[in-house]
Each structure stands twice: as structure tokens, then as C-alpha cells.
Amino acid sequence: FSPQVDAANTGRVLASDAAVFLKRSGLTDLVLGKIWDLADADGKGILSKQEFFVALRLVACAQNGLDVSLSSLNLPVPPPRFTDTNSPLLLSSTASSDVPWAVKLEDKAKYDSIFDSLNPVNGLLSGDKVKPVLLNSKLPVDILGRV
């Protein structure tokens, strides 16, 4: 977590700290309340890292005109945008689709399915599983080694 949302470095985000941070998204209090309710499903008033990521995904969904619902979590959206210049998630005025290294939204689902087909464990893939896929790219081995 960033010190902006977890100043005490507890691995959790209190409702008050999350509210201040999420307000920087420019979304209405009504929408932010719905996001909080979905992220804090058991109503404990504290978000774990995973629950905070759910909140961030829902912010991104809302900012891109998608429903604020758990069913929207797997839809391809660019990262959420925040107005605070200290935010690690701040995007410049350049849309992510204009950044040459950014994955285009239409390609994200394809890459997600490739990733999922390799049977990740706890959301991670070993080098042994990724190597054959990277070799299919036909890039020179020295470049793949750097990747």
C-alpha cells in the first residue's frame, strides 16, 4: 500500500483514509458509497489489500461508464484516475490507449485468456510456463532474456 492510504503500514485501509483517497477520483459520494459497500462486503469498515484493489477496479469501471457492480470487475478498463499529483495511479491527460507500451482494451481479454490458460497459481506464473509462450513471439533469445 502507498503511505497515502496506509500511513501506519498495517496492510489495511481504514474507511476514513480510503474515503479521502477515493474522493480524489472525482466520483460522486453516492457512487463512492456503492463502491465501498461492494469492496467492504462484510461491513467491517476496513479494507484488506485485495478489497482495496476491488475498490480501485470499481472506481475505474465507474470512470469509464460501466456499472458499479461485482460483475464489472473482470471487464477491461484502464487504471483509475486520481487528481492528487502524489498519487501513484495518477494518469496524465494522455489516454492509456495513446501510450505505445499500454495494452489496448481490445487486446486485454485475449491476453487475460492466454494468462489464465497457463493455470496461474495464486495469480502468478512460473518462468517455465511463460517461456514457451514468449518463444512463440519469434523475438531473438537475447531480447527474450531481458524480458
Can you give keywords for this protein?
single chain; 147 residues; mainly alpha; Recoverin, domain 1; two-stranded antiparallel ribbon; 2 strands
Structural commentary:
- Among the domains are: 12-72, EF-hand (Recoverin, domain 1), CATH 1.10.238.10; 105-137, no CATH class.
- It starts with 11 loop residues before the first strand and ends with a helix.
- Helices cover 43% and strands 4% of the residues.
- The longest helix has 15 residues, at 49-63.
- The chain is mainly α and 147 residues long.
- The chain has a two-stranded antiparallel ribbon.
- It has 6 helices and 2 strands, in the order βααβαααα.
- It has helices at 15-23, 29-39, 49-63, 105-117, 127-135, 141-146, and strands at 12-14, 46-48.
- Helix 2 packs antiparallel against helix 3.
- Residues 27-62 form the EF-hand domain.
- One of its GO terms (cellular component) is clathrin coat of coated pit.
- GO terms for molecular function: cadherin binding; calcium ion binding.
- Residues 1-83, 107-147 form the EH domain.
- Pfam families: EH.
Outline the secondary-structure elements.
Elements: E1 12-14, H1 15-23, H2 29-39, E2 46-48, H3 49-63, H4 105-117, H5 127-135, H6 141-146
Antiparallel strand pairs: 1-2
Helix pairs in contact: 2-3
Protein name: EPS15 factor
GO molecular function: cadherin binding; calcium ion binding
Domain EH: 1-83, 107-147
